[in-house]
């Protein structure tokens, strides 16, 4: 784990921002609807009409735009130092932690910024866990850090919630990784063990 990037109690400004673009594969005879942006953290969507009428029913139907651009704004950063792990939120998001201390575990969404290169984003097949004895597998069928959109997910046990800092028992993220979102872990997140199916390589150890 690298040395902590932060020496103050707040995450440095300005916010890191990531733009994600996607081309929709669906084709339609209708002209592409206007470009729009969704700026996460704002109360509404800024969008064009995006509606067209189908010849059969004459009713409006929503069509995906030819290009959609999303802007993610991190809410803080992951920190690991001296054997302890923290989720440090920016002061403006402090109120969003109200009630989190009543939960035992939290889902942590963060950004794999150390893999953010065009080459690694285009890598769609890997040997899981970096083990060539595991079969070549699509990135959507494993937990590879190489993916088109570098969103990572882990869950942690909550140790304490103080101010805008959440201390957790462990953190599968590099020190300084941009923090995107937090959600409490519920019993409904776990399917019955009998219903869980996975490939043979995933049943083996790390």
Plain-language structure description:
The protein has 2 helices and 13 strands, in the order ββββββββαβββββα. The chain has 206 residues and is mainly beta. It has a domain at 17-73. The strands form 4 sheets. Strands 6-7-12-11-8-13 form a 6-stranded antiparallel beta barrel. It has a 3-stranded mixed beta sheet with strand order 1-5-2, with no helix packed on it. β11 (151-162) and β12 form a beta hairpin. It is globular. The two termini are 18 Å apart. The relative contact order is 0.21. Mean pLDDT is 77; it is low at 1-15 and 17-58.
Summarize, please.
The chain has 206 residues and is mostly beta strands.
Strand order of the largest sheet: 6-7-12-11-8-13
How helix-rich are the residues, as a percent range? under 10%
Shape: globular
Low-confidence stretches: 1-15, 17-58
Care to count the β-strands?
Answer: 13
The rounded Rg comes to: 20 Å
Main beta-sheet strand count, sense and barrel state: 6 strands, antiparallel, barrel
The helix count comes to 2
